[in-house]
Amino acid sequence: MVSQAVLDIVLLVNLDVLGELVGLAGIVANIITLTVFVSEGFHDTVNISLTALAVSDLGALVTLQLYNVMVNPWFARADLPFLPLELQSLTAFYPHNYFTRVRGFITAFVAFERCLCVALPLKIKQILTKRVAVIFNVSVYSLMVLNVFPNYYMTYYDWKFVKSRNRTVFGILYRPNKDAVFAVSFLVTDLLVPVFAFFSVVVCTVVIVVTLHTKVAWRRSASSSSEVTGKGIPSKERKVMVMITTVSVIFIICFFPFSAILTARALVPGMSINGPYWNLVLLVGSVAFFMETVNCSISIIVYYRMSTKFRVRLRAIMGWDKGDIKK
After folding, report:
1. Separation between Cα atoms, residue 284 and residue 279, nearest integer Å
2. CB–CB of 55/96 below 8 Å?
3. How many angstroms separate the first and last alpha carbons of the chain?
4. Can you tell me whether residue 254 is helix, strand or coil?
5. pLDDT tens-digit profile of 39-83?
6. Closest to 292 measured CA to CA, from 46, 73, 16, 97
7. Which residues are listed as membrane-spanning (predicted)?
8. Which of 29, 43, 91, 286 is the most exposed place for a label (fewest CB within 10 A)?
9. How far is 104 from 115, CA to CA, in rounded Å?
10. Taking a C-beta distance cutoff of 8 angstroms, is the pair 126, 161 a contact?
11. Extended beta strands in 50-200, E state
12. In sequence order, which residues have a C-beta less than 8 Å from that of residue 177 and are 6 or more positions away?
């Protein structure tokens, strides 16, 4: 359905031009974001989770830059002593997937936390303490290792003879029973896990948006004051909810193409590797990877525009403001 010539052009544009430019900017942005959060300290659970989120974004971008280089059509077809398209799997693709999965669950956790702020505003600080936030984020990073473990267990690098090149090159080899293991692994780790994280973010975001709309409508009918009392949401808390909602909506939009690919591959056999629609999968995948790059790169813009504390701290760190940093 997609010719190799068209695929090569799309891969070059989406991954090696746009992806590299946005990704490099995103790496710098996430380093700055981490600096700001560390400077602010971890006095609340939101900062803890957003710091973990920035780490996952940074890891996803770094590994994706390597992936973009190794799948470059010219580089992949060059006469090299190794096979870039095979080596990218264990060195770039699976590590990128690891950080992407981590990002999905941390985003879902932050959105879920905002939902609890609405449902149980008086008990949220007792339920989601800093200890709980740290344990959850560390657990996500630890458990997601299991998500990529089957791929590393069943594959390894070694020298092999390639008939098409009539030479021995360094590539990827598989252990026995790989098909049986990968069949289960693909269903659980490559479909159910990311899709579950995706829909968790969707559900929590919808709840937050609906609740915010309901509370705002109630406040307007109950009082003309700018501050919220009684059942309303405090203005500071509402700003945090709006910021988290924005981050979640961006995640939903940017991750949707990848979620669609995973679902399609599970339903359409021809979308497997070397299947009749594989070039189409690679084409749509390049778009999905670029959108992931955007997703991991623009959080700093959201924080800067929606968080006064973040903006003041960033401007002070960068030397844009000479005044004291507000506590």
Report:
1. 9
2. no
3. 58
4. helix
5. 988 888 889 999 999 999 999 999 999 999 988 888 888 888 998
6. 97
7. 21-39, 46-67, 134-153, 191-212, 240-268, 280-304
8. 43
9. 17
10. no
11. 155-162, 167-174
12. 154
The two three-digit tokens of residue 156, written as one number = 């390894």
The tokens describing 18, both together, are 């746009």
CA torsion, ordered 291, 292, 296, 298, to nearest 10 deg: 10
What's the predicted TM-score (pTM) here? 0.86
What was the pLDDT predicted at 278? 80
Nearest to 72 by CA among 133, 154, 13: 13
* Cβ-contact 65, 20 below 8 angstroms: yes
Query: The tokens of 261 are what?
Result: 């690919």
Taken in order 68, 73, 76, 79, the sign of the CA dihedral is negative
The DSSP line for 9-26 is: HHHIIIIIIIIHHHHHHH
DSSP secondary structure code for residue 271 in this structure? G
Over residues 157-174, mean pLDDT = 89
Structure tokens at 173: 């080899």
Chain segment 94-152, per-residue pLDDT in tens: 999 899 999 999 999 998 888 887 767 777 778 888 899 999 999 999 999 998 898 89
Q: Is 170 helix (H, G, I), strand (E, B) or coil?
A: strand
